[in-house]
Predict the structure of SF4 helicase domain-containing protein.
Amino acid sequence: MYSLSQSIAMKGAAGEPLSSPFKKLSKMGAEFRRGEMSILAAGAGTGKSAAALNLAIQSNVPTLYFSADSTAATQLSRATAILTGHDAREIKRKLHAGEFDEYRDVLAERWWQRFNYSARPTPAELELHLKAYKAVFGTHPHLVVVDNLTNVDAGGSGTAEEFTFGLEGLCDYLNEMARETYAHVLATHHVVGEYADGLKPVPQSGLKGKISRVPSLILTIHKEIDGMGGRTLHISPVKNREDFEDSSGETYASYAFDTRNVRLTDVDEFAAF
């Protein structure tokens, strides 16, 4: 046990915010802090994986990314597009055609960002790779991404109760991982059917399995499509232990989503804040 004075020395890197590309969220007090766990939730195809990858690539911090939801070819194409600004589809074509050499140098500069592509990782596999990262680089990653939560094989989920209990237990495990390693652990997650189309703000209660107890930060995403190929992602801090939150999801920061190069960039204004 520690006194308050002794706790100064014990804090380590816990609470330090990662460098984030999402500046408007930062202004709202929604930071990705080391030693804490967060959830990024949205309907399928809304852009939660793209947002998670933008955080990893644009923050440029030591990262361990568990990409259960996307293949190596998809993530490699997207990451290369974010880094270079080139068209992700053309990058993927070059990758499969053996014409990828022009991108090797820029990717080699990100040697501290590592990916695992197991479609159904277990908690033991997550822990093994975390230990391997520490063994190779002498430090734990500053960011761990689990994309997505329901792809992790956390045991039986034959009933709705077992499913929710399994997700709660997995969140507890990931939160402990964050506390012990001083990494920020971000898990992407699905929403309930009412919000599955991604077209309206998602409240805290809209998370599948109602798993809002453990994470320090919960962000939800809904999209706006202008009919001419443009897309805006609105990211709402529906839970935030450190600062501003609006559990209704009606307050959000807005980001232009370039579907060509998968980049998210700040929009000039964000709603109701």
